[in-house]
Structures are given as structure tokens and as C-alpha cells.
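We store chain and fold; thus.
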Amino acid sequence: MKRSVIVLIIALLLVPAIFAEGTKELKPTFINIATGGTAGTYFPLGGALAEIWNTNIKNMNATAQSTGASVANINLLKDGKNEVIMVQNDIAYYAVNGLEMFKDKAFADIRGLATLYNETCQVITLADKGITKISDLRGKRVAVGAAGSGAEANARQILEAAGLSYSDLTAQYLSFAEAANNLKDGNIDAAFVTAGFPTAAVQDIAASRKVALVNISPEIISAITKKYPYYTPTTIPAGTYTGVDAPISTVAVKAMLAVRADLDPTVAYLMVKTMYANTERLKAAHKVGSQITVDTGKAGMPLTLHPGADKFFKEAGK
């Protein structure tokens, strides 16, 4: 038999093996997605992801779970209680490197699936409070996020860049939904919210009270982006919330998906592939779904990519 014929036969025999990882039928697979509070952005997107994966991956059983968001999600993943988490990229970086709230508790076995969209740091107040800049928070009652959350870390770092600390104000450790209720009821003067906009908790306030968003000055933005490179300057467009008729300058981090290093590469590959093949469902779940694209799926990624995700992005030429 001629050598060329032998080579052709071997190549044909290898084709099924080459493509098996991306096409073989999964054994029954249970995926619990850790999201965030029901008033935030993670929860509706997590529900959409579960629906996408259940509909398009045979033998996949995915569910979305409401949680305390980024920091809590890292701990759930580390403890093996969730298979996929939604998390801020800055918090993921702290976790893998043992910094900030994970000091001396590094989680080396965390891997990235994809970055998703900008999570914007929003400082919300009521129009009649007279709070127009970060320094006006001095002496005020301020919701800084749930204790130990990603939003709380953002609040602390923004205040620090402005020359303030929690000792300069009355800090209230409240979730997005709790902050919204307390702001409406007059129990607090302002709240830090980190989420994709428009954020349900802020829309809820704006439905009954005239809200205002606090601009972060160029000096503060420069200071925080210099010290913490995960932040990027961003603008909340005018009209995003009822009554907020001018653009708002602020900063943002990135939302992302993370998994454990030992997740089956085929499962990881199929989850990333089907997510990007069904982005219309993500757009329907929340406006930020329009930012979730293959082209930006590695932007701001602070973790080593999981092999399954890496395979997908290489196939996509990214």
C-alpha cells in the first residue's frame, strides 16, 4: 500500500478523536451557578445561563442560586458547593493571589471561563440630600454593600482614593435590596452599588423617589485606577435612570465566570460555546447582555483560563 494512502487512512481514523471533546454526549451533569442578590444583575443573567445550558447541552442540569455575590461565591466554589460562579474580576484576583479579604487564604485552583461585562460602581442618593460629590459623604449614613462583598471592597477603595475612610461616615453593611429600601425610607443618605446598569435596586428607588447619582471626580478616578489597575473609567449615560438627566462619571470593574481547575474540560468547553451561541437570551435577561461577546471574553481576565475555555477561544481565533 502506498505511503500516501496509509497516511490518509490514519488521518481519517483520527478525525473522531480530534473532535470528540466538543461533540461527545455528556453523562448527567449538575451545575449550580452562584449568582448574587435578586435585586442585582448576576441573578437574572445566571438564570438565563442555566436555561441556555439546559436547553442546548444534553444531560445538563443547571440551576442558578441567589447568594451574597462575589466574595461569598469564591468561598462556595472553594468549598465545592457550586460548580460555576459569577464574580468581579478584582475579587477573583484577590482570591488567587491571597490578597485583601483572602489574605493568607489564596485559592490556587480557581480558573476563568470568560469575562462578561462592566460592573459599574454607582453611588446613589436622593436629589434632596444635597450630595453631589464623594466628599459630601462625610458625616452621612452610607450603605457600603454587604459585609465582605465585592461592592463593599469597591466602596472602601473609592472612599480611600477620595481621602475618606469608614471612620468619616456611618457605614451600613447592606445588600442592594436592603440599601434601596433604607434609602427610600430615609434611613440612609447614600448607597454604593456595584452592578451592570440599569440596576434593578436603583430602578426600584427611582420609581418612587427622585434619585441622584454622584459623579466621581477625575482626580479620584485617576487615583483609584493608578493604585488598582482592575478599575477602568466609565460613564453612565444620561437617562439610564428616571430623573437622572446628565451623564455620570465613575469607574467599573468586570463581571466574569469562574470554575474550579478540576471541572471536566468538555463541560467547560460546551458551556462557553453554548453561552456565546445564545447571547440573545442573555440580552433578554438584562441590558448588559449586549456586552457579552466572544471578542471581549478575555478582556480583564485575572485568572488562568480553564483548559475547556481556552480551547473554545483558540478555536474562535481569540
Confidence is low (pLDDT under 50) at residues 1-23.
